[in-house]
Design brief:
By secondary structure, the chain is an all-alpha fold. The protein has one domain (2-124). Helix content is 79%, strand content 0%. The chain is built from four helices and no strands. The chain has helices spanning 2-21, 32-41, 45-78, 90-124. The chain is elongated, with a radius of gyration of 19 Å.
Length: 125
């Protein structure tokens, strides 16, 4: 029964990731090629503001993903999904910690990009 509970929790976590991957209400979803074109042709304050909003949306999504991995890491450090015992999943917890750091770092970078485009928007006035 314990193995079933662990797999149920892992399945629920996977569904949460899938839901988090869906665009938030009002979030714009554009292709990388479209974003590249927008960056290359941005001239007006509105162009730069739109790009800044896209970067802010990505930063927010990355922070959500980082939090999900933090919670997964907490779980992995407490329960071994193989059923062998508690606290034996340090490598899984470490994997999650690495992802938390990576997504948090990415969110900071996207926020910095948003700030630069806001500055470009102000300069374009």
């Amino acid at each position: 029964m314990r193995a079933m509970s662990i797999w149920a929790l892992l399945s629920a976590t996977a569904l949460a990731f899938a839901a988090a991957a869906l665009p938030a209400a009002g979030a714009d979803v554009i292709s990388h090629d479209r974003l590249m074109h927008m960056i290359q042709t941005a001239k007006t304050p509105a162009d730069h503001e739109y790009i800044a909003r896209l970067y802010e949306q990505q930063a927010s999504a990355d922070l959500v993903t980082a939090e999900e991995h933090r919670r997964m890491g907490d779980f992995y450090r407490g329960v071994d999904p193989t059923g062998a015992g508690r606290g034996t999943s340090a490598n899984l917890g470490a994997h999650c910690n690495n992802l938390v750091e990576a997504y948090t770092r990415a969110a900071k970078e996207y926020s910095a990009l948003a700030k630069l485009h806001r500055e470009a928007a102000a300069a374009a006035h």
